[in-house]
Amino acid sequence: MPFSQLHQYQQKLAQLGQRQLLLLAGEPAWQTDQIKQITPLCHGDWITISSNQPDAILPEQAIRLLGREFLHAVFDANTEFNTDALAMLTGTLKAGSVLILCLPDIESWNSYIDNDSQRWNDAQGGLSTPNFMAWLKNITLGNNQVMVWQQSTLLQLPVIMETAGAWALPQGEPTAEQQVILDNLLLSTSCVWSVIAPRGRGKSALAGMFIEQYQGNVLVCAPAKNSIDVLSSHTNKAISFYSPDNLLELCINNEIQSDWLIIDEAASLPIAQLEALCGYFPNVLMTTTVQGYEGTGRGFMLKLGNNIPNLRTYQLKTPIRWAKDCSLENWLNQLLLLDEPEYDVDLQQQGEVDIHPLQGNWHNNISQLRDFYQLLTSAHYRTTPLDFRRLLDGQKQRYWSASMNQKIVGAVWCIEEGGLSSELAHDVWLGTRRPRGNLVAQSLVTYGLTPDAMCLNALRISRIAVLPQYRRQKIAATLIANIVKESQKQAIDYLSVSFGYTDVLAQFWKQCGFQIVRLGVHKEASSGCYATMAMYPLTEQGEQLLQSSLSAFSLQYPQIKQQTKLHLADNLIPRHIATPQERWLMMAGFAFAHRPALTVYESVANFLVGYEQHFPLLEAFFVDNKSVEQCVAEFSLSGKKVLTKQLRAQCAQLMAEKDAKLTLRYQQWLATCSHPSCFDFV
Fold this sequence. Notes:
Keywords: Acyltransferase, ATP-binding, Cytoplasm, Nucleotide-binding, RNA-binding, Transferase, tRNA processing, tRNA-binding. GO terms for molecular function: acyltransferase activity. It is an enzyme of class 2 (transferase). By secondary structure, this protein is an alpha/beta fold. It is built from 26 helices and 20 strands. The strands form four sheets. A seven-stranded mixed beta sheet has the order 14-15-16-17-18-20-19, with helices on both faces. It has a six-stranded parallel beta sheet with strand order 10-9-11-12-8-13, sandwiched between helices. Helix 3 (about 85-90) packs antiparallel against helix 12 (about 325-335) and helix 22 packs across helix 23. The radius of gyration is 28 Å and the shape is globular.
């Protein structure tokens, strides 16, 4: 086929406001040759996402593209298929765009090793993803609007589906949908507004039009400054832009005021940060997508509505950046299940709940896959296409569903953890290794008294969701109770869960029988809350792990409370009294290995009694809670690394002052023991 025909075809797409996918399946060198001939004919940006090509945007940096527009793009998936990046890139492409998708020969897709699997699967190295590739093949080859060009065949151009009436890109004037929203925004005196829509519907453009028409002060906030390009292009006024962290700091210090705050790409920010920002301005406008490109979905809006009671939401439905029924958008929505079903959240449903474990062979039950995943996107915050990939091909996954009237209304997604060698667990306890995966088990070892958490068999509850209209019926608690019963039959030593701390969530897990055993001191980027871990013992060994984990937590909780200002409810506070052996073990792990400083604050304070004047650095850091910067300056140190080295050395010296023989025994024991435990030593 002459390339001139492809050029004419692309021009026809532009006239009709359409966009289309071109699959190049073959060797990378052949793909490069075709792209070199196509790009000069079809003029455009030809932005490229690839982990292999020079000057290309890396897949993990695709979030930088949000809020911008491009004509034509290349997505290189020869060695890794980052579906999040694909979705973000597709949403930026204007009418008339061709998206070139580069993949190996179709016959080899069953054995395709996807290096992107290292993001979403615990296994080391790339993972074969036959289920996703079979899904991709079915969606792509079954779509008569996709251009498929294999190295061994000629390109056949599909017939372009012509829609009734001519298409034209709006020339800066608001659409009817946008005008209704603008009129309401301009009349607002005090309210929090959100405008939601799939990509390409004019959310950012609407924000720019509002700035142009509003006569007062407006501030703009977004994850990155280049993400407001579209917004800026719809106003002639200068944009007062602030990063979220900087703006919040100015607000806290009462150094900034404005009539309006506009938060573009709001779902990319933690809910807690959004809630805090909304409290400082009389009017706020947030724009975001409801399709799960960045882990938004309707779950984001539900959670946002719970945290901001006076939230008013508008939705834009008609595409602006391209015409209706765009074949590229339809293909992407099918591939990643981005079209969410509409639920009547005000309709209260009742009925008998049936709990069932699911087999997980989703490729043999497409309707079940769709129901399970779309429930997560509708009811759970931060579900992304990465989760869809894990569902299809992830290892060590288990699933349960709750059904009412033969409809899935609740879901639990679990991941197997633990079962690792004592040698690896020992290295993690010492702080010399940090293997992939085992989120809770590895954290319990890193901050705990023993490496048992990584050696025992565990099941971590990764996601739990119930559709909004079915809540307050104890469906989630019933799901958990069923998982406990099933796990007790399967030699699982303990269940675990990790969540962003809120009082409501903490009490829910407490009521389900879980006990908090870890609290992080840094807020999660996604939730804006402190990471919290809880466990439910199922065997005698699991109970022993719980008790040792609670002992470690009790040693660390005073310092965690100091750093986070988070005060647990009385029924959540660990009550264990640390033994001398536990304090010695924690001290030895910090002094003679590479364990974190958080594990020894209480122990150092205990050891320092009577020795304060001999160890002013330990007193300053561990007792007076002076920062790294303060200690570095006060003791004339060159930086954090030297400070840590000094702290470890002085802890060892302090231990020797208390008991030289016992200190030597701990030092030698840690160097030779493959399974440290404070219960079988001394």
